[in-house]
From TrEMBL:
<keyword id="KW-1133">Transmembrane helix</keyword>
<keyword id="KW-0472">Membrane</keyword>
<feature type="transmembrane region" description="Helical">
    <location>
        <begin position="88"/>
        <end position="106"/>
    </location>
</feature>
<feature type="transmembrane region" description="Helical">
    <location>
        <begin position="113"/>
        <end position="131"/>
    </location>
</feature>
<keyword id="KW-0732">Signal</keyword>
<protein>
    <submittedName>
        <fullName>Uncharacterized protein</fullName>
    </submittedName>
</protein>
<feature type="transmembrane region" description="Helical">
    <location>
        <begin position="181"/>
        <end position="198"/>
    </location>
</feature>
<keyword id="KW-0812">Transmembrane</keyword>
<feature type="transmembrane region" description="Helical">
    <location>
        <begin position="151"/>
        <end position="169"/>
    </location>
</feature>
<feature type="signal peptide">
    <location>
        <begin position="1"/>
        <end position="20"/>
    </location>
</feature>
<feature type="transmembrane region" description="Helical">
    <location>
        <begin position="64"/>
        <end position="82"/>
    </location>
</feature>
Length: 220
């Protein structure tokens, strides 16, 4: 809006006419010859046109206009440059502290990674070591356990059959004992009857002998 007002004022102040100054010079040469005398006349005509236009106010206006805007943009440029420098300074400040903390973080992180790696390597190595031996012992344990189970199985198998035969042996032994008992029983009774029979037979024989003997003596 200010630009429009200034431009309108300039247009009102500028002149509407142009001043012209003209200078004319004419040169004429005339030669007259007679029998004994020669006369030469020279006339020079010069024309000079000078146009003067009053452009100082317009130049001053445009000069002021561009200077004003140049100063305006320069001021804002300086202003933004100042704040840019301000923020750059703080950015640099925070970047410095960030680098500072990053350095210490990296430093501690380096040692942390070192100890972590050392611990991890140590733990992994010994874990793998014990795991390997544990696996080997487990393998041999499983191996012996398998054979132990295998022998136990056959032992159980033979024990089962032994028990089986023992059971039948006991069974037969029981029946054998049973029959033996009855056999003994019958034998006992047989013996008893035999004894009894023998006893009676002996008694009968004695009586018979006695009887014959007496009769024999009696006969003689």
């Amino acid at each position: 809006m200010i630009e429009a007002l200034l431009q309108q004022l300039l247009l009102q102040l500028l002149p509407s006419t142009i001043t012209t100054t003209t200078t004319t010079t004419t040169t004429t040469t005339t030669t007259t010859t007679t029998t004994t005398t020669t006369t030469t006349t020279t006339t020079t005509t010069t024309t000079t046109t000078t146009t003067t236009t009053i452009l100082l106010l317009q130049y001053f206006y445009y000069y002021y206009y561009y200077y004003y805007y140049y100063y305006y943009y320069y001021y804002y440029y300086y202003y933004y440059y100042y704040y840019y420098y301000y923020y750059y300074y703080y950015y640099y400040y925070y970047y410095y502290y960030y680098c500072y903390y990053f350095y210490y973080y990296f430093y501690y992180n380096y040692y942390y990674c070192y100890y972590y790696f050392y611990f991890y390597y140590y733990f992994y190595y010994y874990y793998y070591y014990y795991y390997y031996y544990y696996y080997v012992y487990y393998y041999y344990y499983y191996y012996y356990y398998y054979y132990y189970y295998y022998y136990y199985y056959y032992y159980y198998y033979f024990f089962y059959y032994y028990y089986y035969y023992y059971y039948y042996y006991y069974y037969y032994y029981y029946y054998y004992y049973y029959y033996y008992y009855y056999y003994y029983y019958y034998y006992y009774y047989y013996y008893f009857y035999f004894y009894y029979y023998y006893h009676h037979y002996y008694y009968y024989y004695n009586h018979y002998y006695y009887y014959n003997h007496h009769h024999f003596f009696f006969y003689y």
